[in-house]
Amino acid sequence: MIIRVLDEQDAGLYQDLRLNALKNNPEAFGSTYEREEKFSLETVIERIKPTKDKFVLGAFDDGCSLVGSVGFVRENGLKTSHKGNVFGMYVAPEGRGQGVGKSLMLELSRKAKVCDGLEQINLAVISENHAAKKLYTSIGFKVYGVEQNALKYKGQYFDEDYMVLKTQ
User: Fold this and answer.
1) How do residues 108-139 score in pLDDT, each as one tens digit?
2) How many other β-carbons are positioned within 10 Å of the β-carbon of residue 62?
3) pTM score, two decimals?
4) Which of 21, 30, 87, 102 ranks highest by number of CB atoms within 10 Å?
């Protein structure tokens, strides 16, 4: 398995994986398949283009297929730049149970920690997603709050747990 920062050449692979995520686990994301299937390749390129405070990691299996991804973005406000956020974590069914998610999150944490002045990494996870919460807890994230009815999809509400990893 290879984990690396995605760039514009990976946009098509990323878009396919992202649409797969939105189709297979619509409750886990704030966006929808119907919204993102309309994104142009240029929109996806802009979304994944790395900067010093934003990147998307991809996990590639031995056959060079993209089987997982996760993003990081640092907040840019004067009073919030000590925080960063995880977004879009997903591992395709064929990559699950092989440590892909943990490898992605460990690499995200390692890369984010080199951001000067970063003190914490935040994420939100569906409260009932016990596998994801177990993964995040295993690398040091702690729950600090719960938002009831954080997402609503097809008439069903989903609570989100907010988790934090201190980097200092």
Assistant:
1) 999 998 888 899 999 999 999 999 999 999 99
2) 7
3) 0.92
4) 21
The answer to whether the CB of 131 falls within 8 A of the CB of 25 is no
Which of 122, 8, 125 minimizes the C-alpha distance to 55? 8
pLDDT score at 98: 87
> What token pair was written down for 95?
């990559």
Vertex 80, ends 79 and 81: CA angle to 5°?
Answer: 105
User: Residue 95: is its pLDDT beyond 90?
Assistant: no
d(CA 63, CA 102): 20
| Residue whose entry in the numeric block shows the structure tokens 């699950």 | 96
- Judge residue 19's burial from the number of C-beta atoms within 10 Å of its C-beta, 0-12 exposed, 13-18 middle, 19 or more buried: middle
Question: Are 23 and 33 contacting, i.e. CB atoms less than 8 angstroms apart?
Answer: yes
Contact 51, 84 (CB under 8 A): no
pLDDT exceeds 90 at position 104: yes
Which pLDDT score, from 0 to 100, does residue 139 have? 94
Cβ–Cβ under 8 Å, residues 50 and 56? yes
Q: In this structure, are strands 83-91 and 66-74 parallel, antiparallel, or unpaired? A: antiparallel
Cα 120 versus chain centre, distance: 15
55 and 8 Cβ atoms separated by less than 8 Å: no
